[in-house]
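During the first year of the project, the team set up a workflow for recording each protein of interest as an amino acid sequence followed immediately by a discrete structure-token representation. This format lets reviewers and collaborators read both layers of information side by side without switching files. As required by the reporting guidelines, we include two representative entries from the current panel. The first entry is reproduced here exactly as it appears in our internal archive.
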Amino acid sequence: MRYFIIAGEASGDLHASNLMRELFKEDPEAKFCFLGGDLMLAQAHGGKMVKHYRDMAFMGIIAVLRNAKTVLKNLSDCKQAIVDFQPDVLILVDYPSFNLRMARFVKEHLSAKVYFYISPKIWAWKEYRIKEIKRYVDKMFTIFPFETAFYRKHDYQVEYVGNPTIDSVYTRPNQQQTFTEFCIENQLPDKPIIAILAGSRKQEIVGCLPRMVDAGLRFPDYQVVIAGAPGIEADLYNSVLKGRNVSVVFGKTYELLQQSKAAVVNSGTATLETALVGTPEVVVYHVPMGRIGYFVKEVVVRVKFVSLVNIVAERLIVKELLAHLFTVNNIASELDLILNNSTYRQTMLQNYSIIKEALGEPGTAERAAKKMVSSLLLQENN
């Protein structure tokens, strides 16, 4: 069968690549065409990458407006690629503003099925999108247990397949690597590490990284090491850091987390990855306009927390510093607790078990692929 897949950012590239690997196992005749990244390309079996996610990852209304021509061209190019490819199914990975437009286009112009793998976070905000999902999406494969109840409330049946972050973390490489081996391999000094995960988009890195790094630098007995994001050039980090004495390590995020004493993490999937690896963390989130933005967030966003760790646990496990609370002083205060208060640190680590129990066992991509292929074959035979 023919699979057209859209992933608009780094985490989507990872999860979609695992799904493609499992789809090919279930359907050895699979043909792929996609918008995504290098990880998807590695699983494409000769399939075509229409566009890389780094040319699509615009965050926030201002960035979208500034890059309006590019955004419109991406939409146009994607539509044409879908028409040219004539897929049996369109598989959408999160990235709702773009992907829901593609879902509508396919349902209005083609006969292909539309599957969503990794639901848009409409349980947090923009709940009105449920109308588009019910109208244009044939099947939704969710990755958080609480999403099933949310969609049931809207009379829309979904299938929970597990969480792909569990798979990624449990199968990560170099799990037996020692701290000394990691430092030698990455040319780092023999000092304990504070990890910085600033996000995968340029806007996030530019807006958040300086404060995150400056907080870490307040601990002279530690070295600050940044997890370089896929698709982001080293020159961007150099321009933002402006000579600060820190290191950047690319392609080793899980290894870095495993060897770190603490992490400062920009809100997103990385907060969940950090918890599953077992590294104490403080979560930050930039909200434009500071206090005003924070107030708007309180009114618009429908969940109590912003980090996936706290959302899944349904309780406060890791500190969240948002908007005007996202300051160097506040980050440093939380790092001090994590690094120097053993009771505080151990409580956080023990609470991480709540996350692991809630999300279930590995095998997410395999379960999703089996369900997708069997559903498509059933449709084909009817």
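The second entry, processed by the same pipeline in the following quarter, appears below.
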Amino acid sequence: MHKTAIRQLLKKYQNGTCTPKERAIVESWYLKYNSDSTSEIDNDELEGELDLIWSHIGKHVRPKRSSSGVGVLYKWVATTAAVLFIGIVLYLFFTSDHRQQHQLADTPVDILPGSNRATLTLADGKTLELSDAQQGVVMAPDAITYTDGSLIAGYGTTGQNAVFPSNTISTPKGGQYQITLTDGSKVWLNASSVLRYPSRFTTDKREVAIEGEAFFEIVRDASRPFTVRVNGHTIQVLGTSFNVSSYAEEQDMRITLVEGAVQVNKKDSRDRTSAITLNPGEQAVIKGNRIDVKAVDVELYTAWKNGLFKFRETELRSVMSQLSRWYDMDVEYIGDIPDTHYYGQISRDNNLSAVLRILKGSGLNFKITKTGDTQKVTVYP
């Protein structure tokens, strides 16, 4: 594909005549590259970059004859190298003289990103607000401490075969926290989530319950299988890492396996149990009485643990749901909102206005308002 075609694609986007697929390409690479942009370039620099980029595309993209033997088809979108260079073109395009039209209107209203916030509820009902200056908590047989060793709460030791009381750690919207369990397993709790766990595991089993979203790194112990209970289903593991997402407002539950193996046990409306085993790189999607398994890019579902939003053909409402939980705000849609999808990644450390400036490249508009303790983003054409 010649660089003239790239220019034509950008022109079509400006004029509003792109196909949905073409629009998605433009929006996705604007999303990816504009997030790190701090400077502008002039037309001479843009022309030079187009020449350089086109020379690279020529090395990586080769014509492929159609099955009928007539004509050629340039697989420029499907080729990773080509898409990368097209992305750079879009980055340069949007950060040149066209950039100003994609800015949010100046406003003093902004929303800070989420942080390390959580509440610990002990078995006796006592609640403790955990420090936002700490990364997480560590569960020991006789105490709970922060990761730096400072004491949060202590309790007496009990025989190994006793039934241990359950504690709860919950994160609000705009919160996250890390928990190290008594066996050394680690749990990263995303915003608006709840983890219930015993103060100590018994000699024959390890069991926790989750609401919302969490990433697990489980220490292997063949004598004590690890079970996660979520929304009436169970996940059984030995030693593995995986992500569980089961928010009440979402239509489905997703279990994404990074490494190791897990067995997902699902109960139907008649209390019958069916089981499937996941391999690394697979995801189980449970919706109603249906369970599907598919191969996925696990980073799309675990990037939040590493401080990123990562999108790949992610629908607008799904993007806004993630932002709503992390920035602790409501979302309102006004007017006829087009079918918009996003590609790329954005740091979760950004203020909300910075993220919305990037999303605004799709042609949508966003307005942040605050009324008392209520924060809201309005989305409109």
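For the second entry, the following points were noted during internal review. The first helix runs from residue 3 to 15. The chain has a mean pLDDT of 79. Both points are flagged for discussion at the upcoming steering committee meeting.
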